[in-house]
Design brief:
Elements: E1 26-34, E2 45-52, E3 57-62, H1 68-76, E4 81-89, E5 92-95, H2 106-111, H3 118-127, H4 131-136, H5 154-167, E6 172-176, H6 184-195, H7 200-203, E7 207-211, E8 223-228, E9 231-236, H8 238-241, H9 256-261, H10 291-297, H11 307-317, H12 327-336, H13 341-376, H14 385-430, H15 434-439, H16 442-471
Parallel strand pairs: 3-7, 3-8, 5-6, 6-7
Antiparallel strand pairs: 1-2, 1-4, 8-9
Helix pairs in contact: 3-5, 13-14, 14-16
């Protein structure tokens, strides 16, 4: 429990909350003052007193910027506290307002590193209105969602994010407006079957704190908190809160009566696909009277599923690190990017000439030694000792000149090759279709233009020249 700070010396508390053991799961805030900044005068939350009993549904409403999401950040330990106590008993699961997905399959985004529990997983996706989505996705819940879930619609991303929070077996669920990204029909489905008093979480006896703008759901909440400018305007039951005019404190939303007027039968499941008009192929309602039948229609790929489909989908996730290209073609394309064919032939002739000069200097040393031996025996020689020194000195200078020239010419070609390969890769990237960016994370693309191009610029020329010199 956070110790209350002396009002005479205001300052930020340490950003932590102690989990206390009570008789039942409970969330309680007592005289809490908190702020995102170090200025005590600009409070984000002021005089906050809220108590949520175990297994109840607490709805937090208010206008934009009134502090609804800040309460959830406070319970998560992200919002620093000036004074007051925050008591939490139980495990917490959080569903953010902005749906966040990573590059991977839909199932991995829902599990989020937790062990796979088949029964809980099926119940979660059913109550989060994902079954029909799995039917229409090419590989069911094994479908690769792409970077930040770009291959899914906004409503699908919101439901997957909600399913991730619901799948975690917790006693307290903090849900930051999960119904705002879906249409009215899907929102009613999610509330009735997942969040509401008869939903999946309620049957698990979980405590739910829901931030929402949907006023028509408030009558099913056990406790309602109305926020205004960081303070509690009113809290209590539905009858207590409805005594005030909420129009100026909440955003206008579609009422439940408007939903019923559209002819949606309460016994039918709400269509799961966002913004799909009636009569469109694949847009259907699934009866919930037979849960086993409903689950059997979902294309949830198990270990005994379609192996070929899973392999094909996995191939989209994994990058091919090896392409079968003949060895000589790799070097040909590399050097061809740095110079045209005549220049490459000239460079090859210069390499042969430099090798000839280098080997000639070594041969002359042997020949000169034999000449000196013949001179000691009194035989006739081709040149004197001084002439041999001049010839050998000239060969040494020639070796130094051709070696430096060979190095400069080689690295000039390599630098040009690196530049051409980079420009060609970047041009291909600019002309790539959108599906390329859906299946390849931005980190992978950046890695190709940083680490891999760095290896081509620095490591590859050095390795080639060293290998050539050792072989010589």
């Amino acid at each position: 429990m956070l110790e209350e700070q002396d009002s005479a010396t205001p300052g930020l508390h340490q950003n932590e909350m102690e989990i206390i053991e009570l008789e039942s799961s409970i969330v309680e805030m007592i005289n809490v003052n908190a702020s995102w900044t170090s200025d005590y005068n600009t409070k984000t939350l002021s005089d906050l007193n809220i108590k949520v009993k175990s297994g109840k549904l607490c709805a937090i409403i208010g206008s934009v910027g009134s502090g609804k999401s800040s309460i959830l950040q406070l319970l998560l330990g992200e919002l620093p506290i000036y004074s007051g106590d925050v008591l939490i008993n139980g495990d917490v699961s959080y569903g953010s307002q902005e749906s966040w997905l990573f590059s991977g399959s839909v199932r991995n985004n829902i599990l989020f590193g937790l062990p796979y529990d088949k029964l809980r997983y099926q119940e979660t996706v059913k109550h989060c209105a994902l079954l029909t989505d799995f039917q229409q996705l090419p590989h069911g819940d094994k479908t690769f969602v792409g970077e930040r879930g770009c291959s899914l619609s906004g409503g699908q991303r919101a439901r997957v994010s909600l399913a991730r929070a619901v799948y975690k077996n917790a006693s307290i669920y903090l849900l930051d407006d999960p119904l705002s990204a879906v249409d009215a029909h899907v929102g009613k489905q999610l509330f009735d079957e997942c969040i509401g008093p008869l939903g999946y979480l309620a049957r698990q006896r979980a405590t739910r704190i829901l931030v929402t703008h949907q006023v028509h759901f408030l009558k099913d909440a056990d406790w309602i908190v109305v926020m205004d400018q960081g303070k509690i305007l009113r809290q209590g039951t539905y009858n207590d809160v409805m005594e005030i005019d909420l129009a100026q404190y909440v955003s206008p939303v579609t009422s439940e009566d408007d939903i019923e007027d559209e002819g949606i039968d309460d016994e039918d499941d709400i269509p799961f696909i966002d913004d799909a008009p009636d009569g469109v192929k694949g847009y259907s309602r699934v009866k919930t009277s037979d849960p086993l039948k409903t689950l059997s229609r979902a294309s949830i790929i198990s270990s005994a599923g379609d192996v070929s489909a899973v392999a094909e989908n996995d191939a989209r996730q994994e990058e091919n690190s090896e392409v079968r290209i003949p060895f000589y073609r790799v070097f040909w394309h590399y050097f061809r990017a740095g110079a045209n064919f005549p220049v490459l032939m000239l460079f090859l002739l210069f390499l042969l000439f430099s090798q000839l000069v280098t080997s000639g200097s070594d041969y002359f040393v042997t020949f000169w030694t034999n000449q000196e031996f013949l001179r000691l025996l009194g035989d006739e020689t081709y040149f004197s000792t001084e002439e041999g020194l001049y010839i050998y000195g000239f060969l040494i200078l020639a070796v130094v000149a051709v070696t430096l020239s060979r190095g400069f010419m080689f690295f000039a070609i390599c630098m040009r090759s690196s530049k051409k390969l980079h420009d060609k890769s970047f041009l291909c990237l600019l002309h790539s279709p959108m599906c390329f960016f859906d299946t390849n994370p931005c980190g992978r693309i950046l890695n190709r233009f940083s680490k891999d191009m760095g290896a081509v610029d620095e490591l590859l020329p050095k390795a080639i020249i060293e290998a050539a010199q050792v072989n010589n």
